């Protein structure tokens, strides 16, 4: 399956990356990792790219890691549509001190606007 | 998170628990701070174990006794403030304030058997009275926007919406003046 994993540097996005890479190695998915500009994350995009590349390498995958500029949600949806992706994978939300899960604005936009299936990794 | 919004004005004074009242069904209900006893803890586990999953909010309370205990261990810590609504030896409801930087996050749960009887209002007022007495300054919460009963309860209490741009509404309340507003008093 042709899978697009969007990560922006939040904890849950790294969890999504690990799970997607793991799964791609088993299922032989055609994986692309898109590093987006998450305004809520303080991690440097180049650092995220490095992290994603080493995760992909460690798993022995031939996956592209791409830096994506512009509005994260709409860019992910656009890439999925124009390049024929079948699934978008994103982090499953931030957990508050109370334990409440809040879905980020990127996931919200993608959920409502994507034509592909969307997986939120918990 | 320091970018959350709170009302300018400090909320009115809330009653400090313990308090007692009769609910709309005539049941005697007592609001008391959680004292850290085994009986209190086990009664809470029992309430959440019997909690209707339809009343879960953003993943809490979790399902299954093991995860309930893990969650309770995290929110019943010494730095948290907890208040229980007791009906005899049963927990009718529970409300909690969990520290988050310079503020506290609030959550409240009333067991299905005790809902729509006015207990939630007494319980949240008791929690906020407890928090006010303990010097809590700012409280925030998130609530699913379709949960009209909860949203109207929070509004009635004085919470104001601080973020309406996502699935959940974020609301804030000021319980005590900020440190720099207390003339002559030291911070903490």
Automatic annotation (TrEMBL), chain A:
InterPro entries per the UniProt record, alphabetical: Rossmann-like_a/b/a_fold, UspA
Domain UspA: 2-122
Protein origin, superkingdom: Archaea
Pfam families: Usp
UniProt record similarity statement: Belongs to the universal stress protein A family.
Protein name (database record): UspA domain protein
Native organism: Halorubrum lipolyticum DSM 21995
Taxonomic lineage of the native organism: Archaea, Methanobacteriati, Methanobacteriota, Stenosarchaea group, Halobacteria
From TrEMBL, chain B:
Record flagged with keyword Transferase: yes
Keyword annotations from UniProtKB, A to Z: Transferase
TM ranges: none
One Gene Ontology MF term: acyltransferase activity, transferring groups other than amino-acyl groups
Entries under InterPro entries matching the protein: Acyl_CoA_acyltransferase, GNAT_dom, MshD_Acetyltransferase
SUPFAM superfamilies: Acyl-CoA N-acyltransferases (Nat) (SSF55729)
Signal peptide: none
Residues annotated as domain N-acetyltransferase: 29-176
Pfam family, one: Acetyltransf_1
Protein name: GCN5-related N-acetyltransferase
Lineage, top ranks: Archaea, Methanobacteriati, Methanobacteriota, Stenosarchaea group, Halobacteria
